[in-house]
Every structure is written in structure tokens, then in C-alpha cells.
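Researcher: I'm comparing several assemblies side by side, and this is the next one on my list. It has 644 residues spread over two chains. Same procedure as the others: predict the full complex and return the structure.
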Amino acid sequence: MARINLDHIRHAYGPNPKKPSDYSLKEVHHEWNDGGAYALLGPSGCGKTTLLNIISGLLQPSEGKILFDGKDVTNLSTQERNIAQVFQFPVIYDTMTVYDNLAFPLRNRHVPETEVDRRVTEILEMIGLSDRAKKKAQGLTADQKQKISLGRGLVRSDVSAILFDEPLTVIDPHMKWVLRSQLKRLHKQFGFTMVYVTHDQTEALTFADKVVVMYDGEIVQIGTPAELFEKPKHTFVGYFIGSPGMNVLPATIDGSSVHLGGETLSLSFAPKIGAGAKTELGIRPEFIRLGREGMPVTISKVEDIGRQKIVRASFADRPIAIVVHEDGEIPAEPKITFDPNAINIYADSWRVGGEA
Amino acid sequence: MEKTWNNKAWFMVLPVLVLVAFSAVIPLMTVVNYSVQDTFGNNEFFWAGTDWFIQVLQSDRFWDALQRNLLFSAIILAIEIPLGILIALNMPKQGLGVPFCLVFMSLPLLIPWNVVGTIWQVFGRVDIGLLGYTLDAIGVPYNYVNNVFDAWVTLIVMDIWHWTSLVVLLCYAGLVSIPDAYYQAAKIDGASRWAVFRYIQLPKMKRVLLIAFLLRFMDSFMIYTEPFVVTGGGPGNATTFLSIDLVKTAIGQFDLGPAAALSIIYFLIILLLSWIFYTVMTNSDAQS
């Protein structure tokens, strides 16, 4: 268990990187708390796995240092860093039994056999494969194999951190939920530092205390699920978190008033915006009220998703999504109002402050 | 639904049947035909029953040659398989070295067998051959023409030179198909180099190793051209393998009956041994 410091880490796969676009991972400089549960969330190719492999030591960063509990481990091998990692696709040792598969990381480290037995039995119980312990791992189904991979990640009790690289991709939805809760319980029980890579926001939001959102090789925001939802630091976070994502509308800012098409809204603060910046207003569909007052919209489609209705409309010639309660009525001449506390202003895609 | 019988399907299969019949079945049947009859030319045949088989099986000549074959194949396999694995493990996985190594490894395989024989026949000669002359010059007694041990060493080294590449290429193909995640997981699990080989690489190479083993066994058991060119079966009968013996019987002595019987016995031995190897090696797989 360790505190992880990423000290000005950058990584490029090609040699001699010059432009920022040569870097798959742009500068990352953060401290991750001991015992924290972090989720790295972002679309494919955003650098999540690169960052994870740098932490585990499978990859050497082009620049920067990694510290575990203040100790520089940048040049240490994976073994020396004492990290456990679970990969996206199952890795099992075909010729070994399920039991031996789980015991493998312990035996390699010369853990006494009684301790091995205790740990392995515990993990077998947890992943629900106790009855197959003595069977060869070869004939198992993909999700059973992945459970073994997961178990091998969890079997050691002395690791600095456990890293998960989209480990539940091949597991069916129900089992996903069960395993995720077990991981969460383990985290609470043993206080491992856990880093969980995923592109599934539900997975990230339910697993982690802190979600690290990555976009195009950069960390755009680290925050609790609530922070990501209410105050997305970057328009990408707004889009990516939430279903449907945040509405981002081009806007002109003039002091504390915002011009959206022909409409004008006044803010409770005056955002500081540099000259020439592209300004936008972001508002989550959940914070738009559809009624008989406010700014006119044209409704194009209503999607009923059970407990809510998603109204697709056009506002000032822009598509906009509005979430309405299942019993909410949709007036004939629909108009909308924005919850003033839920309005975020973005300059060049980054949120500008002025907390109300 | 009722099954429809469509006899036209036979026309589709017919070309293959004809091809197989002409290339394999009919020649094999002529051999069977010869093996149970005696002939003195003029297309006169006399029924001989199992006489030729009994004669072959009772001759020391057959058993001696068979022993030489078994010994040769055993030595070849014991050296080429581990050596092939070792070389494959050390071949580069990426970069410019890959095409270079692959081409370099393939070269011996591209050389016609009798040319390989000729190369080594000349190479080993004490009077003009680079190897023979050098060994002689530094005082190592070496002469494959009249020393049994030297003749065997020459044939074995030649076969290793010629065929280890095949094992290397097959193993290499098996190795490069292992996803990176396995090596990464092994690192995470703290596996030693030996454990990586034992639990990841070897199991993943199992299939190709089976193929390599069977190919090398069958080929080495049927070896003919190279020893025929290098030693001609000598000194004495020291390198007379079944194949060489067979040709001597059939063409040298024109004993078609015994030669045909020997062919069939030879064929059945290869078939039997290959089947045993295959069954044993795939069974150990299935039990797991």
C-alpha cells in the first residue's frame, strides 16, 4: 500500500518526440493517496493504459519520475515495485490447476505454503471457483479465466497497489456487478491503493472515490463523481460523464450576462475570460426545466427510457437534450429555463471559475 | 425434411479420388502386388504368399538397418528439438533482425537434398574439404570414409545443419503468437525466466512442437539422399539405413519381391511410430 506520486510524467512511443502531438501521454503531475480507489476514465486511445503501465513499470516513461511513498521507483522493475495488475483479457497458465494459478504469484515470492493455502482458499471463495480448484485452468470459460486473472491480482496481501486494466470487459453484466462490489469491499477491508482503468462511466463512478478523466493524453479532471457531474472542468468531461451528456452551447459572454442566440441570461458571477477565447455555456440536461416560461425551443423527439423522458429539441438552432420526469408534461409551446446554479461557462473548452 | 440424394455430388469428388488413386493408392497396390509374388521377368508372376515378408523379417540385414534408423532418428530428435527451441527463444521478436534471421534460417531448407549431401561430402574430405583438411591439419584424426564414428558424426552434423531451421521456424511461429499480456502478467507475478518458459512459452509451443517432432521423425526415419551421397551406406554397412537397403535390394539386386515386402514393412513402421507419438503427445494434452 503506497502513496503514488507522478512527477511530471510524459510518454511518447516514438523516438525523439518534439511536438506535443508526439506524446501519447502529455504531462501528468499528480499525487494519488495511499489507500485511494481511483478510476481512470476515458475513451479508447486516450492514454489510460499507457499511464497504468508506467505506474506498474511495464513501460518506462520518456520523461518524469514515479514515486511510491516518496521513494523514486522510476527505474525499478515491476517485481521490485511490488505491484499487482489485472489485464483486459484473461491471462492464465494453461498447464496449471486453478489453485496453482492463484498460488503462482505467492510461490514465486517464496511465501510459506500454509500462508499460500490460506490466501488461495480465500480468493477461490471470493471468485466462486472453489469447486474447480484442482481442475486444470485450460477448459474454463472466458469469464472464469478472467476471474482467475483477477484473483491472481488480489492474492498478494503486501502489494503497493493493485492496477486493473478494464478487467471486467469479458464478464457478463450480472457477474460484473458482483465482482465490482467485491472489489469495493476488499478495498474497504484492506485499504489497497487501487487504480481501475475503464471506458465505462458507470463502472468508474461506482468503483472509485476519485475519478480521473483522461482525454487525448491528458488528465482533464480528477474529482469525486459529484464534482464531475456538477462542475465538469472541461467540456469533454461534460460530454463523457452523464447520459445524455452535458449540453454545450456556443455563447458570447459580456460581463455577467450570456448571449445565446437571441436570448440573454444573467449569471451570478462575471467569468474572467481572455480576449479571443472560444466561449461556451454548459448545462446538464437534468438542470433544464421544460415549461411554459422561458426561452422557446422546438421539440424534435421524445425518448422514453422508463423513469425519465429525454427530450431532444432545438434551441437557438442548436440541438439540446432535456431530461423530464416520467410524469412531466410537455407543453404545446415548450419553453425552457436553466437552473442558474448549474450553469458552467467554458473558455476554450476549460471551465472558468467564479464560484457563486 | 426429407434427405435429398444427389448423385451429381460424386462428380465433384471424382477428380480428387482419381488424383489420389493415381498418386498413392495404385502405386501402393503395385507394391503390394509385388510383395506377394515372385517374378523372373517376362511378366511372369508366381504366387509367393507371405514368403518375402518372412524372409525380410528373419534377416539380420533388416534388423540392423532398422536399429541404425532408430538410433539416427533418436539422436537427431534429441539434438534438433532442444536446439531449435533454444535458437527460436533467442531470435529477435522485432526490428531489422527479424527478416535477416528468418532468411538466414530458411537458407538450408531451400537447398536440394542431394546438393546438401554433396556439400558435406566435399566439405568433409580430408584432401580438399575445408572441414576435413582443417581437422587433419590440427591433428584431429577424422575420416568419414573409413571410420564408422566419423561417418555417423558427419551425417548427424549435416542433418542438424540442414533441418534444425525447420524446428526453429516452427517454434518461432509459436512464440510470436503469444500475446504480450502473458509476459506482462508473468512479470507482475514475479515469474523467473525458467517459469516463463515452463508455464507460458512451452505450453504455447506445444502444438508446433508436435508438428516439428513428427516431421523431423518421419523425415529422419526415411533419410536416403544425404547418406547415399556422403557415405553411400558405408563404411561397410555402418550407415546403411532401411531406405538405402531398400534401394540396394530393389535396384541393385533387382529383388522386387523382398524389396516390396520391405517397403510395406518400412511404411507400416513409420505409420505406427507416428501414430504412437501423436497419440501420446495429444493425450497428455487432453488429460489436462
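Model: For your comparison table: Chain B has a mean pLDDT of 85.
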